[in-house]
Write a structure and sequence with these properties.
By secondary structure, the protein is of the alpha/beta class. Helices cover 44% and strands 16% of the residues. Keywords: Hydrolase, Lipid degradation, Lipid metabolism.
Length: 530
């Protein structure tokens, strides 16, 4: 069953990359285009040096609608097996929901522009020029389709015929296939690991996923950082208990997330005796995203957020130290702070743990001609807009960090990651197309040299809980519930071990127990990877 699920995923992922390369982009990439075409494309030309082959858009549309293969299309499909033809037809019929306004705004961000320029090196104009402008003009009208965006709709809205550079396409396709094969082999090796489980473990896991003994109180606090001119809103979760001093865990969210995204996790940790804080980061939170989509900003987040996000958390801790005595009766132990960082929040957590941006490495990586295999690199490259002056954002009050699919590999080099000397639990996924396991997660984790570092790999988990495909709604709900259960158990084990130093939780950080937490087919593996 697991093997079948993995095969299905890799098939879908390969289609994703192919769709991206042909500007038939179902996932992330189709969010980056706008403009209004005046003349629709009629044909696609495939070029290999001096050799050229043409294919009409109409023949593809006919095949997608009825399965009928026109003579010109038969030339390309003649050696393909019937089941493969069916997959291609299904692919051409696929529909995805996307808001036209979202498309229009994201089209002109630096990330959207760079992505389109990379694609335009492969998908060119008939004059062999970069297809950037043609690509950008196609999707806005296709996105306005009431039934959702489709590959055929995208082609129909191209303002001119396109020419696909097969030499560059095949080169990139080989890179994609190599990446997929390596990842598949890596995961297959994990699944072959023989790990024994017992009934006692099952009962313990059940208890870890359940709420603890403390009732939870939640309050919203508004802070003003006048020095940086930032208004910070945070939700504070406190357990109802006596005067016992308790550690603090801060959850730093991903780009554009609301504070309640990890509310369930906050409630769970608080029920076990932690104080939990979920702040908004003003330059990259939900409100900032909404303002961006309203046209108030050119970019969907401020580059200064690489600095301001860690400073937000240090500021919050400073303010709580001032109010801890009279407002909380010394309840908060602000010398024992943990960070749970998701995606952008993971980079925030690493900065607070002591990592500094390596501008030399970042400049080199961002000069790569094609960043289509690692979308997160495009976001990391935004840090190049900052001053090259090194700034240490380390906060010594932070004693442990939990990282969930962070982007960090190009931001922080080996020397910078070696500066981290606190416990780190790093959760990655084999199905992350935003921060790929082998390109982003493993290389970055391997730079760590701290005493207590744990790499947990979840199979079958995407980077985000959100899906735009109508057919994946039920699956997304299931994945979200499983991921939340994993976070409840893993974060509790990790922070109980390294913030409150409770020895009874230490033995849970073992390959056997971590594997037992997993729910097939979304398995968990604690990996010895250095």
């Amino acid at each position: 069953m697991l093997k079948n699920r993995q095969n299905q995923f890799w098939s879908v992922l390969k289609k994703f990359y192919l769709f991206s390369l042909l500007f038939l982009i179902p996932g992330i990439a189709f969010n980056f285009f706008t403009a209004t075409p005046t003349i629709a494309a009629e044909k696609i030309t495939l070029s290999w040096g001096l050799l050229k082959f043409s294919l009409s858009v109409k023949s593809l549309e006919t095949f997608a609608r009825s399965g009928k293969v026109e003579p010109e299309l038969n030339f390309f499909l003649t050696k393909i097996k019937p089941e493969q033809k069916q997959k291609i037809q299904n692919f051409l019929q696929a529909k995805y929901e996307v808001k036209p306004v979202t498309v229009a705004r994201l089209a002109y961000t630096s990330v959207g522009t760079k992505l389109l320029q990379n694609l335009g090196e492969i998908i060119q104009t008939p004059q062999k020029e970069n297809g950037f402008y043609s690509l950008r003009s196609a999707v806005i009208l296709a996105a306005a389709n009431p039934e959702g965006i489709t590959p055929i709709a995208l082609l129909n809205h191209l303002p001119t015929d396109i020419e696909i550079n097969l030499v560059k396409l095949i080169k990139l396709a080989k890179q994609v296939n190599h990446l997929l094969q390596q990842t598949e082999q890596f995961v297959a090796h994990l699944d072959e690991t023989n790990i024994r489980e017992d009934a006692h473990q099952t009962n313990q896991i059940y208890q870890l996923k359940k709420a603890g003994k403390f009732k939870v109180e939640q309050q919203t606090i508004y802070l003003e950082d006048r020095q940086r001119n930032r208004s910070i809103t945070l939700d504070l979760y406190l357990p109802k208990l006596t005067s016992t001093s308790i550690p603090v865990i801060i959850i730093s969210n991903g780009l554009g997330a609301r504070r309640d995204r990890f509310e369930e996790l906050a409630q769970h940790l608080t029920s076990y005796g932690f104080a939990v804080i979920i702040p908004d980061h003003p330059g990259s939170d939900r409100e900032r995203q909404l303002a961006f989509f309203q046209g108030l900003y050119r970019e969907n987040f401020d580059a200064a957020e690489f600095i301001n996000r860690p400073l937000d958390i240090s500021f919050i801790l400073d303010q709580l130290e001032r109010s801890n005595q009279f407002q909380f009766n010394h309840l908060l132990n602000l010398k024992q702070v943990g960070i749970f960082g998701y995606s952008f929040g993971g980079a925030t957590a690493l900065s607070l743990a002591g990592a500094e941006i390596n501008f030399e490495q970042l400049t080199k990586n961002c000069s790569s001609s094609t960043n289509l295999l690692n979308i997160s690199l495009l976001y990391q490259c935004r840090a190049l807009e900052l001053s090259r002056k090194q700034v240490s954002l380390r906060d010594k009050r932070v004693k442990a960090v939990y990282l969930f699919v962070p982007f960090s590999n190009s931001l922080f080099g080996k020397a910078q990651m070696k500066q981290i000397n606190i416990p780190v639990l790093w959760e990655a996924s084999d199905q992350d197309i935003i921060t790929p396991l082998l390109l982003e997660q493993l290389p970055s984790f391997s730079k760590l040299k701290t005493t207590n570092q744990y790499l947990v790999i979840a199979t079958g988990m995407p980077h985000t809980y959100i899906t735009r495909s109508k057919q994946q709604d039920k699956s997304a709900i299931k994945i979200r519930k499983v991921a939340e259960a994993y976070h409840r158990a893993l974060s509790l084990i990790f922070f109980k071990t390294h913030l409150t130093n409770e020895e009874k939780y230490q033995h849970f950080l073992s390959p056997e127990f971590i594997h037992a937490i997993g729910e097939n087919p979304y398995n968990l593996h604690l990996v010895d990877f250095k």
